[in-house]
Structures are given as C-alpha cells and as structure tokens.
Amino acid sequence: MAGACGLAPGCDLSHIPGPVRHSSTEGAARDEPLKAPQTLRRSQPPRPIIACLLRHTQAQQLLQMACSHGPFRMNEQMIRMTADFSKETSESREAFLAHLPRLHQLEMKFGLFEPARMWITKNNVSKDFYDPEDLCIFLDCLQTGPMDTATPLQPQSLFMATTIQSPQEPARRDCYDKPQTFHPREET
C-alpha cells in the first residue's frame, strides 16, 4: 500500500507544515494555496516547488535529465527544473556571466561549472577562476597588457605559467605577479 503521498510505503508527509499564511493583505493572496480548479494568472509570480534529494548523484542525474529535455508543459503551465543556489553563489555566477562578451572578443573557450567556477582555455591551456574579480584582473591584463619586446612577460604568455593555486587559497594577486591556477589539458 502506498504511503500518504502516494509514492512509496511509509512516505508520510503529515509532519511537514503547510504554506505560511500572513495576516496582512499584501502577502495573503500570494501565500494562499491554490484550490483544485484555480490556476496561476499570467501576472502572478511563479510558485517554486523545492525537492530535497538525499543523494547528490541522484540530484545531478535529475538536473541533467531536466536540462536535456528542457522545460515541459503541464495543464498549459510551463515547468522548469533548476538547481537552487545560495545568494552568494548566484551573485558570483552572475558576475562571471558579465564577462562573457570579453571572453568572446578574446576568442577564448570557456565554461561555467557548478557551483561558481569559470574555466577558460586558449592554445590548449586551461585556467580556473573561483573569484570573478580574479577573472576581471586577468582579462584586463590580456586586453591592456604591455606589448613591447622589453617586457619579458607578454599577456599571451600568462597561459604558459606553471603556478598552481588551490581553490581554498583566496589570495589576491596582480596578474603579472603570478597567475591564479594552471591545469594543462591532456590530449586523449
């Protein structure tokens, strides 16, 4: 016999409190649960459904399947599945995304990985950035760096340095001093 939620035996959700109800008229309309025949109007904000999965691998598989299938419709409502990030992580990801036009301009390959790590590649050499400010400093050095022959370190040679910095070490450096991280990509 299925549990109270209809998913699995022993699945009892009676201990989970219902939606918070406010006494003010401002939040009351939004926090009231929808009745069966009601639907959201276009002017209403979307309602999130939060699901906590106990195993990280299952959460990753679920998000991967959701990304491959894209948003889907149920009862004429668009449903999307996304990861829930903290405010700091979301702000860091947005700051990384602000640098995409500069990365396109410099013809670099890049990727934004979970939770907030920017990976860039040029000339088969990769660099990881865990802080958007470090990426900004690095891109400034590439765009406005010295181009004369008297300077031994040209901006393009920053990709050839071998200094390694762990992600736990939040040291601030000028990009001509030492690059942040270096991970050579192995050809397979």
TrEMBL record:
UniProt-listed InterPro entries: L1_C (IPR042566)
Q: Which Gene3D superfamilies match?
A: L1 transposable element, C-terminal domain
According to the record, the residues making up region (Disordered) are 16-42, 166-188
This protein is called Uncharacterized protein
Q: Which organism is it from?
A: Pleurodeles waltl
